[in-house]
Design goal:
CATH superfamily of the largest domain: Regulatory protein AraC
Distance between the termini: 42 Å
Radius of gyration: 19 Å
Number of domains: 2
Oligomer: single chain
CATH topology of the largest domain: Jelly Rolls
CATH architecture of the largest domain: Sandwich
Number of strands: 11
Number of helices: 12
Structural class: alpha+beta
Largest sheet: 6 strands, antiparallel
Order of helices and strands: EEEEEEEEEHHEHHHEHHHHHHH
Helix content: 40-55%
CATH class of the largest domain: Mainly Beta
């Protein structure tokens, strides 16, 4: 993919860009821009490429990207008529550093922005609680927009449950991905069939490669084995069900493709660091305290 430079168009009498959209499909070119970017998918799933990180994304997975970090978001395409609802906010370094460089109380925000040069993914359990701030940014006018932006960044700065997306060795000048369509076919297959049994043969057929070649190809492009990716995706979907539904844990493990509760609990704890029941309890406690 060729990396393209993008210019953000900002309306008159505004200092930064904000938009909420609900559309059947969204997809971008592999690009970068001067702005910091907050991307929040309210509804919809798909593929997220940030630097040398290639992963699926789910609802409520908020990402903060630093200036000039190359990225691409494409949603899952299915046969349903449901729309993808997302929020995107872009702001220039020159705008935000007018505040953080001169105000000691903004030191945590400054630290957050400095870390964002590798891309930051916030745990959905916590980023969901920032959604109201992001909606207010899109709906407000005048000085209130900027006040809500600072408020959102301040709340994000105190969240410790985050993940760095790009590796330390990532180099913008050396980056070039090939065969994106092949990889996306595989990922789309996983997204659509995660609740069912998935075999290595089925995945390799999606890539039109032999099993051994596919395993090497997938590991080189994602840093994970195919089944690591499948397991992590299933856990991610389970987290969404815990947060957004009233289903029991025993029902959720069956709906996310695990063949036993013990297997589900073991994988969930390996991925998230806590059991599914503890994750649910922590989320409910957080809602009450926030």
């Amino acid at each position: 993919m060729k990396l393209k430079y993008s210019i953000t168009e900002i309306e008159n009498y505004q200092s930064f860009f904000s938009e909420r959209k609900a559309i059947p499909y969204f997809g971008e070119d592999w690009h970068y821009h001067e702005d910091y970017e907050l991307f929040y998918p309210i509804n919809g799933t798909g593929v997220r490429i940030v630097g040398d990180s290639i992963e699926y994304f789910n609802e409520n997975e908020l990402v903060l990207l630093g200036s000039k970090v190359p990225h691409l978001f494409k949603n899952e395409v299915d046969d349903s008529s449901s729309e993808v609802d997302y929020i995107i906010i872009k702001f220039k370094p020159s705008l935000i550093y007018k505040f953080v460089d001169n105000v000691p109380e903004f030191s945590k925000i400054k630290s957050l922005l400095e870390k964002s040069h590798q891309g930051i993914l916030f745990d959905p359990m916590y980023s969901y609680l920032i959604l109201e701030d992001l909606i207010r940014i899109c709906e407000s006018k005048g000085a209130e927009r900027l006040i809500h932006l600072i408020s959102a960044l301040n709340r994000l700065a105190i969240i410790s449950q985050t993940k760095t997306l790009t590796s330390e060795k990532f180099n913008l000048l050396e980056l070039e991905y090939e065969n994106e369509d092949r990889l996306q076919r595989v990922i789309n297959f996983i997204i659509k069939n995660y609740a069912n049994e998935i075999s290595l043969k089925e995945l390799s057929e999606q890539s039109c490669m032999t099993t051994n070649s596919f395993c090497r190809y997938f590991k080189n492009h994602t840093g994970k084995t195919p089944f690591q990716f499948v397991r992590e995706y299933r856990v991610s979907r389970a987290c969404q069900m815990i947060i957004n539904s009233s289903k029991s844990i025993s029902q959720i493990y069956q709906d996310t493709g695990f063949n036993s509760f013990s297997s589900f609990n073991r994988v969930f704890k390996a991925v998230k660091g806590i059991s599914a029941s503890d994750y649910k309890s922590r989320y409910q406690r957080l809602i009450n305290e926030f």
